Amino acid sequence: MMRGTLAALAAVAAKEERRLFIVGGFVRDALMGIQSRDVDMVVNDEAEQFAKHVSWRLRGGYELLNSKLQFSRVTVCADDGLPLTLDFSLQRGRHIADDLCFRDFTVNAMAISLEDYLKGDGWEDYVSDPCGGKADLAAGLLRLTSEECLRDDPVRLLRSARFLHKVGLRLDGETAEMIRRNAPLIRQSAKMKLAIEFFQLLSAPQAADGIRVLHYDLNVLSSFFPPLGTMACVSEGGEDLLTHGLRTCDCLDEFLSTTSCFPGRLVEQLHSHLKTEVTDRRRRLAYLRLACLIHDIGKLDASAACTAHLFSHEQAGEAYVGSLARLLKLSEGESALLTALVCAHSRVLYIEEGPAGLAGKLRFFRQFGDYVPELILLGIANLSAQGRCSDERVAILISILDEYFSGAGQELPAPIISAREVMEFFNLPPSRAVGGLLEQSYAAQLSGTVKTHGQALALISTLIDRWER
């Protein structure tokens, strides 16, 4: 429990003559019998200064998130030994009811004073509920407090899909119409806020279902990032690209929930890897889900879709990833991960088995480093979505994954020659054949037969001559 920590917080508030209200998700979850570790607090005066005092009194960490709104975060170790996040913001309006009416959904527009919450049993009777959140929660409805709230903060257009599945509600019909009507406003949202909300959706277990709601029910996806909407209009093999991307995301989550095909140690290693944060509060799994969704986005480029070369659509996908990265203001590291997953999503599927494929496997490990697990999982999910993933193929890919986590790719030398150099020198287009040339060159490098750039070019020239005879 964390009641002792909240009581200590109440003591600080009393000493400094502040009135504190617990608001939003904590109240909603508590009414549903769920204990949250994130507590949103509204302070009636000087919220930023008060949060600093709380961090000092409770020996917690302090972070100012928005100076204009006096929005601060204090992270403490609660009396139960677990971390507790306290978010403080300044009350809007003269009364707490005024503040609540500015909020997004009725189920998030409820509050209770900290003193009343600490009274224990019967605290529910003291909840301030000017928008009817209790009734909507009981009815299982997600309803906007007003249409104006979408204009005040258009990122709420994205948030609706996440809350439907997070809280297990159904969308109110009038609310759905309001969202559809205001969907173009999403372009006015601050990029950083868009990124935060979008990655929260991607981090949720039902991420693909949330994306479906945004596109098919609310028409928000096309306004958010137009190429995603266009994917629904381009078909291949009887299925549009968006449907395939969503199915790939579903297959990934289904595969990760089935541990019977993994060696015991690999399950822990894999899930630990996917829980690693790429940046603040954004785990690798979220980027992998996004890559599942957009891995074929390069097929929107007509020349890439029609060309006979295997990797053309992967290359074309790089430009779309760049556009999405700019929209979401992704860091260099985030962009590099997403680009690698989209532009090399089929790479692992062409590693040969046995001794013949050893050099290709090692070059794969050396080239992609800690992106390897994601590329293998994306390959499995992609094949599964196409109905082409046999048990034998899964076993092969899992064995490659096991080799990676066993350290097979560590301390390998960099290839002497790159794909770009081979294509430019010999005037070759991107293709699986170029990969085969590089694998044979790397095998010769590992054996010591090839030691220089010139020797690598000579070997590749000989191999090409043999093909042309």
Second rung of CATH, namely the architecture of the largest domain = Orthogonal Bundle
Low-confidence stretches: none
Q: What would CATH call the class of the largest domain?
A: Mainly Alpha
Briefly note the CATH topology name of the largest domain: Hypothetical protein af1432
* Rg (CA only): 26 Å
pLDDT averaged residue by residue = 89
Distance between the termini: 76 Å
Share in β-strands: 5-15%
| Total domain units | 4
Sheet of most strands: 6 strands, mixed
Identify the quaternary structure here.
single chain
Number of helical elements: 25
Strand order of the largest sheet: 3-4-5-2-1-6
| Helix and strand composition category | alpha+beta
Q: What percent of residues adopt helix (DSSP H or I)?
A: 55-70%
Total strands: 12
- What global shape is seen? elongated
Note down, in words, how this protein is organized.
The protein has 469 residues and is α+β, with helices and mostly antiparallel strands. The protein is 56% helix and 10% strand. The protein folds into 4 domains: 1-139, Beta Polymerase, domain 2 (2-Layer Sandwich), CATH 3.30.460; 145-220, Hydrophobic Seed Protein, CATH 1.10.110; 225-405, Hypothetical protein af1432 (Orthogonal Bundle); 419-468, no CATH class. The chain has 25 helices and 12 strands. α11 packs antiparallel against α14, α16 (284-294) crosses α21 (372-385) and α20 packs across α24 (432-447). The protein starts with a helix and ends with a helix.
